[in-house]
Amino acid sequence: MQIDKNLVMYLEKLGRIELSEEQRTASEKDLQDILTYIDTLNELNTDGVEPASHSFPVANVMRADCVTNSDRRDAVLQNAPREKDGCFVVPKTVE
Amino acid sequence: MDICSMSALEIGAAIREKKMTVREVTEGYLSAIENTDGAYHCYNTVCKEAALARADEVQKGIDEGRYTSPLAGVPVGVKDNICTKGVPTTCSSKILENFVPPYDATVVKRLYDAGMVVLGKLNMDEFAMGSTTETSATGVTHNPWNTDCVPGGSSGGAAAAVAAKLAPVTLGSDTGGSIRQPASFCGVSGLKPTYGAVSRYGLVAYASSLDQIGPLAHDAKDCAALFSVIEGKDEKDGTSMENPKFDFAAATNGGMQGKKIGIPADYLGEGISTDVKAAIEAAAETYRGLGAEVEIFPMPIVKYAIPAYYIIACAEACSNLSRYDGIKYGYSSPNTDNLLDTYIKSRSEGFGMEVKRRIMLGNFVLSSGYYDAYYNKALKAKKLIQQAFFDAFEKYDMLLGPVAPTTAPKIGESLSDPLKMYLGDIYTVMINIAGVPSMAIPCGFDRENMPIGMQLIGKPFCEAEILSAAVGFQNATDFHKKSPKES
Questions:
Q1: What residue spans of B68-155 are helical by DSSP H?
Q2: Which of B208, B380, B422 best tests the A interface by mutation, with the highest count of A CBs <10 A?
Q3: At A11, which CATH number?
Q4: Model confidence pLDDT, tens digit, residues B220-268
Q5: Alpha carbon of B131 to those of A20, A83, B151, B362, B404: distances in Å?
Q6: B468 is catalytic
Q7: Is there a domain that residue A37 lies in?
Q8: What is the pLDDT of residue B487?
Q9: B3-260+436-486 topology per CATH
């Protein structure tokens, strides 16, 4: 797999991050090294193998449908970077 | 006796026998931290006042017969990715530097229920991504055996704190070796429990199909004691499972007569240092001397463990870390004018480079056009790895191998070459992929007098069996009794 600057920039966009030019150049090399190594996985024959999901058979875990959380609005909002009248403040999203 | 040189169970017994008070013990550790943690940086946060207030409360509870656990009154350090109500939980990341959880993780609640005293929060690689604790935004932790070396990671603070006697026991988390590898580098004992054996409710998620919380301590008995405090099904973690009631007596029995131990040949192959290999071979001899049968068997899938691990872990990480948006909690970049800008700037300024790298790698393996070739391929490899362990456990009671190919590297050696750092995880990541438990204990020293660790890998939910094997080894050897200062 060949990594280039455009792919790095595409991955930045997908991850909602932005690298400096210097970080971008370094990432191109680092990701190339890592993916070249990861490509050794192609040597492994996985024909007819079902992809695994969970390590152990656990499915449809249920618990009683009852309210356990109390009113913790103020405690939760204490961590909000911006807060007003008991709500999170976000930039205007609809014109 | 010096409080900080005692094991957790010894401290618990001394408190019960009224030879010392919970406050004396807590003060002993707090002053050790104050005096020496400047040289190591194990702790991100020390809860001095809260710990002392808690100590008095616990003493009262013990005196009134409310706290009866063998670890009642024992101080404990907690890795900084495990939520503690009212105490900052930073994941050693700028993006969570001011995050104060409004709730306790289930494991923390269980520490409190047992009457333990939380000393503080321990340094780690940012979001547990790293094998050296160098990716921490709060600065590297120094290895107590040689402060020029890393303590390993990601639970570097949790391992170094035990080695430096700044906590008798700690809680770490292990996604691909993050308890076992720092335990190995710092000469302490650490258990990665079976996936599902311990609730992760309140553990900040890195890779959810691999993450597991476990204990670190001076010896296997203390690990068994702390494991018995935290294990068990929790309604709040749907992946936690009922397991056969953990039997502390069986876990500390130490008998090895007639046990069959397998050593994967591929754990002793290319890349392993001669000192580490010699220590593992000597450990095999020790087990033979204790009456176990030890043999080497082929496990060629080892070669594919790292590629599969980094695909799966990064894929899950990039999804888990999408919650950091600069809106609900955590760092938010000032001076942004629209929503997308808030996301991008907050994340770019808040995350360190290793986290960004894994987010990009995760997005790559999940992106359209690459999903099948990478992510799906890794899940098929996972199936084969699980099968390889299943087959091995048909023949052996447990597996033995090194934790890492080398001892602790010097600070600065790994950071410049991420691939090299990833390759050091070769012996640990497979265990997480298979979901099985593994116990790391010290088994020697290299020519620079740095600790070497080995791991005992067990069948699912057979923690008692590998803990007992570790106790057997520690009854016969004294590697776990060595400490940095006496060396």
A1: 106-113
A2: B380
A3: 1.10.20
A4: 999 999 999 999 999 999 999 887 778 999 999 999 999 999 999 999 9
A5: 25, 37, 9, 18, 11
A6: no
A7: yes
A8: 40
A9: Amidase signature (AS) enzymes (3.90.1300)
